[in-house]
Amino acid sequence: MSEDPSSSTNTETTFTKSTDKEWLAQRAVDDIIKIYVEPLKFNMSLSSLTEESLFFGSLLSGRWSLPRTSDDTALVVNSKPEVFEHIFNHIQRGICPIFYDKTKGFDYGLYQIVLGEAKYFGVERLGRWIESKGFEKAVFQTITWTNYTAVEGTVKDNVSADIDIRQERLTRRMNPRPIFSPLGDPSLNPYVRFGEEEYVQTTVISRKTVWDLSFAEKFE
Questions:
Q1: Which residue from 97, 77, 81 is spatially nearest to 35, judged by alpha carbons?
Q2: Burial grade of 149 (CB within 10 A; 0-12, 13-18, 19 or more)
């Protein structure tokens, strides 16, 4: 005897999304909101998010419908996680990013990408940091050089990449030698002869990268 499907008990629970107002009220209790940037979720302070970002301040004002994940746990944002990470770090911790490599220098291309996201999300301080090139004042190089007179070939090759050693062969005058007059009286016709000698001049140029992170922390 087959069982009538209509007589079976349905044990499945229907998932009902909360309203936007209820959803925000729940997150305001702990001041934590999840931002979903596929495939990552970022836990952010709700108060910091609305204070530091014009975009989120407007979106979470209650005037707009909130794009939420299917499980109703996070707010969906269209961005790239590797770029949004810098928005996250700035809003949460006030970090002004420094994209610098000792060999390649500043990554201006990445700065332009982050600047575009900063403008989109209305993170004004981060935008000012990039547009004013404040990062160039937070990282800089000092260069010093010293000349030595040394024997050629005494410099080792396995020196630091931050040190440049140059050698060149030069000629200089020696101390003058007096040559006396054939008449035997040097006061009558004195003159001097300058000898010459070769020597090797070694110039040591050292470069040092200085990170002034306090400038980034104080930037307004």
A1: 77
A2: exposed
16: which 2 tokens? Answer: 């009902």
**Strand extents, DSSP E, 92-195:** 100-101, 105-106, 139-150, 163-173, 177-179, 191-193
Task: Quickly state the pLDDT bin for 157 (edges 50, 70, 90).
Answer: very low
Q: Please return the burial class of 176, using the count of CB atoms within 10 Å of its CB with bins 0-12, 13-18 and 19+.
A: exposed
Contact 113, 75 (CB under 8 A): no
Q: What's the whole-number mean pLDDT along residues 5-33?
A: 72
From the list 20, 15, 116, the residue with the least C-alpha distance to 61 is 20
Q: Looking at the predicted structure, is the pLDDT value of residue 154 above 50?
A: no
In whole angstroms, what is the distance from residue 77 CA to residue 87 CA? 12
CA 108 vs CA 39, 49, 104, 161, 177: distances in Å: 26, 26, 11, 24, 62
User: How far apart are alpha carbons 69 and 124 in whole angstroms?
Assistant: 27
